[in-house]
Design goal:
This protein has 294 residues and is an alpha/beta fold. The chain is 51% helix and 16% strand. One of its GO terms (molecular function) is ATP hydrolysis activity.
């Protein structure tokens, strides 16, 4: 990974499979290689703060103890306020109170909130001050919905432009200005040289099905999955009692199935005897996960 073009990495997968853990581990890995790295989450139950054991919140925050590493937890309420303000500010100069009230009213729709978080998120794809931008996305369905939105928006803009000229996100002109930004972002999302989509999964049938489903959904919007992380594998040496032996065999069977069914590079991560939080553990996990990388 070179220092001159920024690279985007998305983590996807079923709830609880280890997306935040693997995103954080990956962040530590790249930052320690000297690349300026940020981890961004739009997960409303953001827990980057738990993982890094420090306050993060809705602003870019340097991570204590790791040079080059930053994190931000996008708060949809705050993102909405910022987005509304950004939309209204240029209009204050030219519109009267009455017209402003109309726009404000329109900005109070639920889709503004959805759009605002995505907008903040996309800002990082329009920002070349980081070498690596890591998105610890919300569970798959939500992620896909966010990714699909711009496609709908462009349709929405065209339809609205033909009608009243108003949309739920404010006047058409305003959205059209953002559209270029979204188009650039979508292009980047589809550019395999710039963007990686990593699926995290457990070696279990439900996880395999979900990964296949979600990766198909992405493919339908023109995005290829880059690689898989199979997380939570019970170490062989621990499979010496009947319970773990059986579970270990179940996992190995599914691991084989994954290798046969899904033609993608796979990284394996063992189940640890602790949660993945704190820099010591993150560094340790990063060494294991990226041991083959130079
Ligand atoms: N290999 C592992 N060994 C031990 N614990 C793990 C491992 N991977 C993840 N965990 C733990 O499992 C829990 C869930 O992981 P994590 O929060 O990363 O999942 P997630 O996919 O981000 O979940 P959500 O979908 O809720 O955002 C955390 O407590 C994490 O520390
Ligand atoms: Mg998470």
């Amino acid at each position: 990974m070179s220092k001159n073009v920024s690279k985007y990495i998305f983590f996807s997968g079923k709830g609880g499979v280890g997306k935040t853990s693997m995103a954080s581990t990956t962040g530590v890995h790249y930052a320690e290689k000297g690349l300026k790295t940020i981890i961004v989450t739009t997960d409303p139950a953001a827990n980057l703060a738990d993982v890094f054991q420090q306050k993060i919140g809705h602003q870019v925050t340097p991570i204590d103890g790791v040079e080059n590493l930053f994190a931000m937890e996008i708060d949809s309420k705050k993102a909405t306020e910022e987005y509304k303000e950004q939309t209204l500010a240029p209009m204050r100069e030219i519109f009267n109170e009455k017209m402003l009230a109309v726009v404000e009213e329109q900005l109070n729709s639920p889709c503004t909130e959805e759009m605002a978080s995505f907008d903040r998120f996309i800002d990082f794809m329009d920002d070349d001050s980081y070498d690596v931008v890591i998105f610890d996305t919300a569970p798959t369905g939500h992620t896909i919905r966010l990714l699909e939105l711009p496609v709908d928006w462009s349709k929405h803009i065209e339809e609205s432009a033909e009608g009243s000229g108003q949309t739920c996100m404010g006047p058409v002109q305003n959205i059209q200005d953002s559209k270029e930004k979204y188009d650039r972002a979508i292009e980047l999302l589809k550019d395999e040289k710039r963007t990686e989509f990593i699926f995290v999964m457990h070696p279990e049938s439900s996880s395999i099905r979900e990964t296949q489903r979600a990766s198909k959904e992405l493919r339908e919007i023109g995005i290829n999955t880059s690689s898989l992380i199979v997380n939570g594998i019970i170490p062989k040496e621990e499979c010496n009692n009947p319970f773990f032996k059986k579970r270990g065999e179940m996992q190995q069977k599914h691991l084989k199935e994954i290798q046969q069914k899904i033609d993608l590079p796979i990284k394996k991560m063992e189940l640890l005897d602790d949660e993945i939080k704190g820099l010591d553990i993150l560094r340790n996990v990063a060494d294991k996960l990226y041991k083959e990388a130079v």
